[in-house]
Amino acid sequence: MTTQGMEGLPPEAIEKALESVAFDESGLICGIAQQADTGEILMVAWLNREALRETLATGQVCYYSRSRKKLWRKGETSGQVQRLVEARLDCDGDAVLLLVDQSGVACHTGRRSCFFRSFDENGLKIISEPEVSPEQLYGASGH
């Protein structure tokens, strides 16, 4: 089952809301992506002010890539987009919960969720297999 994506918010509402966000010393906030209709936690990534602004304005989730030092629009290379259903700010203003409608897989390993390993008595156990190969998602270059 899929959920309806959120329409973008008006610019004045976004700017007012951004005043309450406690970005860290690097200008980032932790974003938790959760499938809106099932509650499944899909991934954790970082957003800077511009990524959060774009996400709220367009309804398409945008993150900040710390390794590439640029905006990362989820699905721009893989086609596995996240449509924003609702965004929530935590009590301290330093984490944002992104309730999304995930198209396809969320993880660069080809799994639905990035949380595919469980701690057990032997260390870590794989609890879900890839649904699609990373090569299919990103081509020969990978993530």
TrEMBL record:
<dbReference type="InterPro" id="IPR038019">
    <property type="entry name" value="PRib_AMP_CycHydrolase_sf"/>
</dbReference>
<keyword id="KW-0862">Zinc</keyword>
<feature type="binding site">
    <location>
        <position position="107"/>
    </location>
    <ligand>
        <name>Zn(2+)</name>
    </ligand>
</feature>
<comment type="similarity">
    <text>In the N-terminal section; belongs to the PRA-CH family.</text>
</comment>
<comment type="pathway">
    <text>Amino-acid biosynthesis; L-histidine biosynthesis; L-histidine from 5-phospho-alpha-D-ribose 1-diphosphate: step 3/9.</text>
</comment>
<dbReference type="GO" id="GO:0004636">
    <property type="term" value="F:phosphoribosyl-ATP diphosphatase activity"/>
</dbReference>
<dbReference type="InterPro" id="IPR026660">
    <property type="entry name" value="PRA-CH"/>
</dbReference>
<comment type="subunit">
    <text>Homodimer.</text>
</comment>
<protein>
    <recommendedName>
        <fullName>Phosphoribosyl-AMP cyclohydrolase</fullName>
        <ecNumber>3.5.4.19</ecNumber>
    </recommendedName>
</protein>
<dbReference type="Pfam" id="PF01502">
    <property type="entry name" value="PRA-CH"/>
</dbReference>
<feature type="binding site">
    <location>
        <position position="92"/>
    </location>
    <ligand>
        <name>Mg(2+)</name>
    </ligand>
</feature>
<keyword id="KW-0479">Metal-binding</keyword>
<feature type="binding site">
    <location>
        <position position="91"/>
    </location>
    <ligand>
        <name>Zn(2+)</name>
    </ligand>
</feature>
<keyword id="KW-0368">Histidine biosynthesis</keyword>
<keyword id="KW-0963">Cytoplasm</keyword>
<comment type="pathway">
    <text>Amino-acid biosynthesis; L-histidine biosynthesis; L-histidine from 5-phospho-alpha-D-ribose 1-diphosphate: step 2/9.</text>
</comment>
<keyword id="KW-0460">Magnesium</keyword>
<dbReference type="GO" id="GO:0004635">
    <property type="term" value="F:phosphoribosyl-AMP cyclohydrolase activity"/>
</dbReference>
<feature type="binding site">
    <location>
        <position position="114"/>
    </location>
    <ligand>
        <name>Zn(2+)</name>
    </ligand>
</feature>
<dbReference type="GO" id="GO:0005737">
    <property type="term" value="C:cytoplasm"/>
</dbReference>
<comment type="similarity">
    <text>In the C-terminal section; belongs to the PRA-PH family.</text>
</comment>
<feature type="domain" description="Phosphoribosyl-AMP cyclohydrolase">
    <location>
        <begin position="43"/>
        <end position="116"/>
    </location>
</feature>
<dbReference type="GO" id="GO:0000105">
    <property type="term" value="P:L-histidine biosynthetic process"/>
</dbReference>
<keyword id="KW-0378">Hydrolase</keyword>
<keyword id="KW-0028">Amino-acid biosynthesis</keyword>
<dbReference type="InterPro" id="IPR002496">
    <property type="entry name" value="PRib_AMP_CycHydrolase_dom"/>
</dbReference>
<feature type="binding site">
    <location>
        <position position="94"/>
    </location>
    <ligand>
        <name>Mg(2+)</name>
    </ligand>
</feature>
<comment type="function">
    <text>Catalyzes the hydrolysis of the adenine ring of phosphoribosyl-AMP.</text>
</comment>
<dbReference type="GO" id="GO:0000287">
    <property type="term" value="F:magnesium ion binding"/>
</dbReference>
<dbReference type="GO" id="GO:0008270">
    <property type="term" value="F:zinc ion binding"/>
</dbReference>
<feature type="binding site">
    <location>
        <position position="90"/>
    </location>
    <ligand>
        <name>Mg(2+)</name>
    </ligand>
</feature>
